[in-house]
Amino acid sequence: METQALSSAELASLREAVKARLSWETALTDEELRSVIESELFASRTVRALTAVERQAAVNRLFHSFRGLDALQPLLDDPLVTEIMINGHSEIFYERLGELFESEIRFESRERLEDLIQSMVGQVNRMVNEASPIVDARLPDGSRVHVVLPPIALKGPTVTIRRFPAQPILMEGLIERGSITGEAADFLKRLVRAKYNLFVSGGTGSGKTTFLNALSQWIPRDERVITIEDAAELQLRSIPNLVSLETRNANSEGKGRIGMRELIRASLRMRPDRIVVGEVRGEEALEMLQAMNTGHEGSLSTGHANSAKDMISRLETMVLGGADLPIGVVRQQIASAVDVIVHLSRYRDRSRKVAEICEISGMRDGEVELRTLFEFEEEGERNGVIQGGLRKREGLIHTEKLRFAGLGREAER
């Protein structure tokens, strides 16, 4: 990882010198821009105190400030960095191979960070300012960007970037990593093919989006799929007939917002075979459940929760937040719409695994009833790595969709 060879003041001075030599009428190639930067750097007194490695780092930093993402570019160029956290212009942390580190590189000023934020959100037609200080966006490579500005963020502009691999991880890759067993993966493959409605739950950073991408590889290629997200990050590359929808924030006048509820309603008129909602967070949960209940089987979604049981409670809360319905009606809606919940956890050894796979078997005593089909069983640690595996507990009760799809009876009751 590159270090910061020059002070913020020195970087700012050199950048201004380079800008003074650039012509707005002539577009420079990357090589020509690097040549201008090197010329200015070697003409300055600062270069005399730098080693060859530090000089190259300074050239790269200046180049990235013109053509890249400034202080973030070295981190974005590292494929092993999965998350970048900016707590104001002078603090940058990143996650690499599951461990957190503090970067030696800093933004030279708060203004430079603010300029970069506006550039990032502007690329996807988003807006963020003091009046609307929170926004979700994405980078051209698909990375998810979450921005919070002052006065909400007390230490200065705060940015969190969640990165995804250039090629989506397939289920085979998750099996190799120990995130799921081959037996459980084959079980889920049959459920997806048979059009069971699945929810993937888990905490922050548990791998929900990655797992949803992996599940989508089993959707038949002849189906029409609609994806709905706050910020597009799903990579359903095996689906030819794919429509991707993304929410839109309100404009400066507070108008023009298009939320998840509106997009789910719109998707129902687009003749979908399946609807995939990146993450259900609020009142749109009711529309999602209704879609699952009205012929759009095989739909997939994710949600934040601490367990499969907690996902049920979260869905109840989300539905009640957008509709004045009796709790019994809400629970019945959930029980009839969702077939299986796959819960993911991030363990203390930083591994991400399927913790449980549960079937919603129906209602009992006014509550949604869950049956544990698979459960991760921990068997201690070895060299700091958790040992254990995903064990089968019970068989699937509702096998009608499997039989209808010609996939046979999955399990005895």
TrEMBL record:
One Pfam family here: T2SSE
CDD domains (alphabetical): VirB11-like_ATPase
Similarity comment: family membership: Belongs to the GSP E family.
Membrane-spanning ranges: none
Single annotated GO MF: ATP hydrolysis activity
Gene3D superfamilies cross-referenced by the UniProt entry: 3.30.450.380, P-loop containing nucleotide triphosphate hydrolases (3.40.50.300)
PANTHER family: TWITCHING MOTILITY PROTEIN PILT, TYPE IV PILUS RETRACTATION ATPASE PILT
Domain Bacterial type II secretion system protein E: 71-348
UniProt source species: Cohnella thailandensis
InterPro entries per record: P-loop_NTPase, T2SS/T4SS_dom, T4SS_GSP_E_ATPase
Protein name: CpaF family protein
